[in-house]
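Hi,

I'm pasting everything inline rather than attaching a file, because the server keeps stripping attachments. The sequence lines come first, and each chain or strand is labelled.
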Amino acid sequence: MNAKAEKIRVASIDPSYYQAVTDAIRTEAVKLLSEEAVVAVVGYLPGRRIGTAVPGLVTTPEQAQQLIFSPACVNNLSLYLTKAKKGVLKKGKVAIIAKGCDLRALAGLMGESQVKKEDIYTIGIACAGVFGANSDRKGGLTEASIARKCRECTVHQPEGVDLLVGTLPELPQLTALEAQELARLEALTPEERWAYWKEQFSKCIRCLACRQVCPFCYCEQCLCDKNRPQALESSPRPAGNTAWHIVRAMHLAGRCGGCAECERVCPMDIPLNLLNRRMAMELKELYDYEASMVPQEKGPLTRYQEDDDQSFIK
Amino acid sequence: MSLLITETNLRSLVDALVKGATLVVGPKHSGSVVLYQPLAAGSDLTLDELPRRSAKELYFPVCEDILTFKRENGKLEVRDIDRSRFPETVLIGAPPCDAGSPSILDAVFSWDYNDEFFLERRRKSTIVGIACTKGDDACFCTAVGLAPDAKAGSDLFLTPLLGGSFRCEPVTEKGQALIDKHAGLFSEGAAGEPVAFADQSTGKLDLPKIKEWLNGHFEDPLWESIADICVGCAACAFICPACHCFDINDEGNPDNGTRRKHWDACGFSKFTNHASGHNPRDIQNKRYRNRIMHKFKYYDDKFGKTLCTGCGRCIRACPVGIDIAEILDTINKKAQQG
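And the predicted assembly:
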C-alpha cells in the first residue's frame, strides 16, 4: 500500500469529529460537576504548544468548559485512579475520559480490586487514534504522525462504559508496523534477538518514566527500588537495565492492557511495547487470555484451576 | 575581517583532534536519537538536531565508578579511580543551552566538596559552542537570560553563516589555544550573513522577581494546580543540562564490588524518604515544587545563578506535558502583580 493511499485524511475527520467529541465531553462534564454527581472529571486540557494536550483533574464546571479531545490526547488517564497517585483526587466518585486502550487498563485495575466500578463514571471515546511520540503534529493525524499502537487498534469502539461519545469516522486500513517488527524479531536467532535487546536496554537511563506512567505499576515498594539488599542493580548499566526491563515485562504479563504508554514516554525510544505484546502472545497461547475492556475477576496468573497445565512441574 | 572556518575544515578539525588522541564529543546520530557521543571522525558530527540528552554527561556521566573494593586474605582493599587517565576532551557543536550549563554546575561541584570527577574533566575540556538555528516551541533560552547566540560557557564560539562557513570567536584562552594549534584550518575573511537564529516562543522573564515570589510562596495553591498530574519519573531531570543530583550505590558483593555514582532526581518519591519511613516531600506536587525552587531560588541563593538554560528538553519529554516555560510565565505574572 502506498503512503498516499494510507494517509488519514484529517480534513474529513477534523474539525467535526474532534469538535463533536469535545462538545459531548464538556456537556457531560459540566452536568456531572454541576449536579455534584462526581467530585472530579479526569480528562484532557489543551497544552501551550501546538498539537499538545495535558491531563486535567477538573473539579469545577468552569474548568470543564476547557476540556478537549484531539489526537494529542495520548495519556492513559486511569493512572490517576491508582494508589500510586493517591491524594491527588478528592474522595468520591470520579468521572474519567477513556479511549478503548485506556479502558482495558481500567478493566484490569477493577479485576485487581484497585478501582471499584461504582466509584467511577466512564466516558468512553470512540477513538480514531492519537499521535505517536516525537511525531510532527502540525499536519494533524496522518499516517506519519499516528501512534504505532493505533495502526492496529482493535478497540476503537469502547464497550461497557457509562457514556459513549463520538461517532467513529471511517478509518483507513494501516499496515501493522508493530506486528511486522515483532515478526521480524521472532524470525531472528536467539543470539541475534538477544543482541537486539542488549542494544536497546543499553540506551536506558533508568528515569523510570515507563514505570511511572504504567497504570499497573502501583506497587508501593518496587523491586527495582529495593536497596537493602539490592534486588537488581539500580545504576544505569547493562546488567541492571536488562534485569529491570525483564522484571517489568514479566510483572505486567497477563495484566498489561496494551496502552503502550511506557513506550511513548521513553526518552530513549526503547520499543517497550514489543515486550508487552510478546508477553500477551504467550498469555494467549498458554491461557487463551487477552486483555479486554470487561473486568475479569482474576487474571490468568493469579487464578488456579484444577485443569491448569502442570507439565512444567518436574 | 573575521576568523572563519568552512564546514569541511570544521570536520577536518575533528579528524585532526581525534588523530591527536583528544576525545572529541559532539552530536551524533544513534538509532532514532541524536546524542552527545565520542566522534570517530568529523563526518560523525551532526549539527541539524538538538541532542536528546544534554552535554552534562561529558562531565557528569549517567553512571560512573568512583572506587572499587576487594577482600583478599580477610583484608578489604579499596582502590581509587585514576582520574589522571581522563582524556583531554573537546566538546563540539553544543548550542548555548548546552555549552552554558557546565560553567553553571562548576559552582556546586566545587562548593563544600571538590568533586574531582567533575572538575578534572572540566579542566581537561574545551567547549566549542555554536549559535542555535534550530529551535522549536519548547525552547526558552532567551527567557532565562541566554540567547541563541550566547557565548557563556563556550571557549570558542561558532556562528553558522549562509553559504556553510562559520564565524569563529575565541571566548577564552583555551579557545584561542585550539585555534592557534590548528591555525591552518581557519582563515581571515569577511563574514557573510549569519543563518537566522532560532525563534523563541516565550517572552523574557524577570528572574529576580520570580525568585522574590518563590521566597514567599513555598506554600501556595499553584503547586497543586501545576503538579498534581506529575507522574514522578526522572525524564525531566535526567535529560536536563543543569539537574545534577546523584545517588551512590555499592554494587557487586561485600567481598568484591564497585561504588557507583549515578543520576538521581527529586521527582522520585524515594529521593527524600528518610530511614525512619518519614518523607518530608510526601506528595508529588511537593517534589515538583522542589524542581522549580532549586532552579530559580535555592541555586541563586547559594551561587547567584539560575539552574536552567531554557533548552526545553523537559517540556518535550514530560510524559504528562508539564511545561516549565508556561509555569515560569505564570509565576512571572504573579510576581509582577506583587
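Chain B has one domain: 2-337.

If the labels don't parse on your end, tell me and I'll reformat.
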